[in-house]
TrEMBL record:
UniProt protein name: Extracellular membrane protein CFEM domain-containing protein
Keywords carried by this UniProt record: Membrane, Signal, Transmembrane, Transmembrane helix
Annotated signal peptide: 1-19
Lineage, top ranks: Eukaryota, Fungi, Dikarya, Basidiomycota, Agaricomycotina
Residues annotated as transmembrane: 146-167
Source organism, top-level taxon: Eukaryota
Keyword Membrane carried by entry: yes
Length: 170
């Protein structure tokens, strides 16, 4: 019984060590691949279902612990397509991000960083770059708010980091 428990612990820990660790910062903290597109239910999710289903399926097929699969072209381009859809929708609707992962450059950058850390795979910048939709005609709120969002995420990460520092100094 004891050794069974030890084995389960080992399996659980080994699984943790291997899983792609996406360092998001802010309230999200570190997330796994299967959480990277897990935005809350809502209009945006419905609108982008056909773009995001293949990405979620690709991530599920790889599993959270097969990092080389999670970082390959097919998976990454499916994720980009999903994020691009959400980005385009947010711009077209002039809406704010409902979640820091929606239509999010920081999310893609964090994913890329996780692939580099885990697999020493440097994703080409174009494979993780969101582009403005052709319908974009000028200044609009969501884009203006984008830097603010990024700063918010960075402040969140800093606060999170300080909390960890505080805890480890206690
Ligand atoms: C998040 O991941 C980074 C990099 O592996 C690690 O240094 C940090 O301690 C992790 N933070 C949490 C809250 O697990
Ligand atoms: C990881 O995924 C690849 C496909 O990209 C597959 O060939 C490989 O067997 C998988 N590895 C594990 C440990 O499941
Ligand atoms: C993945 O992308 C790299 C660089 O863009 C390319 O050389 C390679 O052929 C691609 N592999 C697949 C399976 O598409
Ligand atoms: C990571 O990849 C780079 C370029 O592909 C290579 O020069 C470097 O030696 C690799 N590092 C490790 C730890 O494998």
């Amino acid at each position: 019984m004891h050794s069974f428990f030890a084995l389960m612990m080992f399996v659980a820990l080994a699984g943790r060590a291997m899983a792609l660790n996406i360092v998001f910062g802010g309230p999200l903290g570190n997330i796994t691949a299967s959480q990277v597109l897990a935005i809350p239910d809502g209009q945006l999710k419905t609108d982008c279902q056909s773009s995001c289903d293949p990405a979620n399926q690709a991530i599920q097929t790889c599993g959270d612990t097969n990092d080389s699969c999670l970082c390959n072209n097919a998976t990454v381009s499916a994720i980009l397509a999903c994020e691009q859809c959400m980005f385009t929708e947010l711009i077209n609707q002039n809406a704010q991000m409902p979640d820091p992962r929606a239509g999010s450059t920081p999310a893609l950058a964090a994913y890329s960083a996780a692939c580099l850390a885990s697999q020493n795979i440097t994703l080409p910048p174009t494979s993780i770059a969101l582009t403005l939709p052709a319908s974009w005609v000028g200044p609009f709120d969501a884009l203006l708010n984008l830097p603010a969002t990024i700063i918010t995420v960075m402040i969140g990460a800093t606060l999170g980091g300080s909390a960890i520092l505080l805890l480890s100094n206690m």
